[in-house]
Amino acid sequence: MSEQNPYKHIAQLDQQGKYLLEWEVIWAEKRVIFNVTVQTQGYVAFGLSKRGQMDGADIVIGGVDRDGRSYFTDRHGTGRKMPEIDISQDWTLHDAWERNSRTFLSFSRPFETCDNENDLPITVNRTIICNRI
User: Fold this and answer.
1) SS (H, E, C) the chain
2) For a designed S-S bond to 22, which of 15, 35, 36, 101 qualifies (C-beta 3.0 to 4.6 A apart)?
């Protein structure tokens, strides 16, 4: 791995190489940082799903508007339609930009948000203890 790339994992999510995902697990913070670079302009969607389907998926949508301002929302899938915005916004946007025909987003989320209705826990062994304050 290059010293210039701090991310521990990388995956090409499509056959054409238009959607690149990088992620790093921050064990001390129980958080995952994601970077996506997508050959598109307008918006990018990213989701976690148990079965690879929209229904029940934990989704974020973000991008950069025409005025250069970033936007980002935590959502959940309820079938084959625009994902609904979560009441609890548990994903954090770190950076967003567009350059040429690519959109870049950097964002993170804790392993467990305790928003069991709309968020999927990020687990290794499926054992998560939810501590509500």
Assistant:
1) CCCCCCCCEEEECCCCCCEEEEEEEEHHHCEEEEEEEECCCCEEEEEECCCCCCCCCEEEEEEECCCCCEEEEEEECCCCCCCEECCCCCCEEEEEEEECCEEEEEEEEECCCCCCCCCCCCCCCCCCCCCCC
2) 35
CB 43 within 8 A of CB 36: no
Average pLDDT over residues 67-81: 93
pLDDT tens by residue, 98-117: 999 999 999 999 998 887 77
pLDDT given for residue 79 in this prediction: 85
Residue 70: beta bridge partners? 64
Q: How many residues appear in the chain?
A: 133
Compute the half-sphere exposure of residue 102: CA atoms within 13 Å on the CB side of its CA.
Answer: 11
Domains defined along the chain, listed by start: 9-110 (2.60.40.1210)
Encoded tokens for 17: 């190489």
Average pLDDT, the chain: 85
pLDDT at 52: 82
